[in-house]
Amino acid sequence: MRRAIYPGSFDPVTNGHLDIIERGCKLFDEIIIAILVNPDKQPFFSIDERREMLGAVLKTIERGTCVIQVDHFQGLLVHYALAQKADAIVRGIRAISDYEYELQMALMNRRLEPSIETVFMMPAETYSYVSSRLVKEVFQLGGELKGLVPPLVEARMRDKLASD
Ligand code: PNS
């Protein structure tokens, strides 16, 4: 029984995240998608909104027998991972530019908790330039999001803009 944590901000979840989760399902029996509660950042979507969207869009992915859960956490990731009895942390790496920061985090996490491995996974090339940050920027400037995020996420972004 192999359990992985897939941590991140998921503000919002993108097709790149879903691609990594599908790939992770081939390696792990269980994946816990863990949304970081970050009091220092002003998010686009609340934790509850992100959890709800993730739950909905995860229904559409290819998961085989993999069990997927959505949760949120505060504090050190390795403390959360230990509490969840996880074996690994999954992170997606899109380009070399991601690698330096991801390597630092992976090595720091290893130092803090040597029993938990970090597994880097590459998304499909189609998503190699997709990030939540760029998705929000493109959206806020009126650009097209088709193919970058699930349709439900795009609809929720439009709803939010309309209600502000
Ligand atoms: O999607 P993101 O914002 O790139 O995810 C970053 C995340 C959540 C993986 C990272 O910020 C994190 O693990 N934060 C928890 C605090 C922590 O453990 N910091 C030490 C990591 S070296």
Account of the protein in words:
By secondary structure, the protein is of the alpha/beta class. The chain contains six helices and five strands; from the N terminus they run βαβαβαβαβαα. The chain has helices at 15-27, 47-58, 77-83, 96-112, 132-140, 151-163; strands at residues 3-8, 30-36, 67-73, 88-92, 117-121. Strands 3-2-1-4-5 form a five-stranded parallel beta sheet, with helices on both faces. Strand 2 (30-36), helix 2 (47-58) and strand 3 (67-73) form a beta-alpha-beta unit. The protein starts with a strand and ends with a helix. Bound molecules: 4'-phosphopantetheine.
CATH topology-level name? Rossmann fold
Coarse structural class: alpha/beta
**Poorly predicted runs of 5 or more residues:** none
CATH architecture: 3-Layer(aba) Sandwich
Placed side by side, the strands forming the largest sheet appear as 3-2-1-4-5
- Compressed to H and E, one letter per element, the order equals EHEHEHEHEHH
CATH domain class: Alpha Beta
> Based on DSSP secondary structure assignment, what is the total number of beta strands?
5
Number of helices: 6
What percent of the residues sit in helical stretches (DSSP H or I)?
A: 40-55%
- Gross morphology is globular
Q: Could you give the distance between the termini?
A: 45 Å
% residues in beta strands: 15-25%
Rg over C-alpha atoms, rounded to the nearest angstrom: 15 Å
Count up the domains. Answer: 1
Average pLDDT figure? 97
Can you tag this structure with a few keywords?
Rossmann fold, single chain, alpha/beta, 6 helices, binds 4'-phosphopantetheine, five-stranded parallel sheet, 5 strands, 164 residues
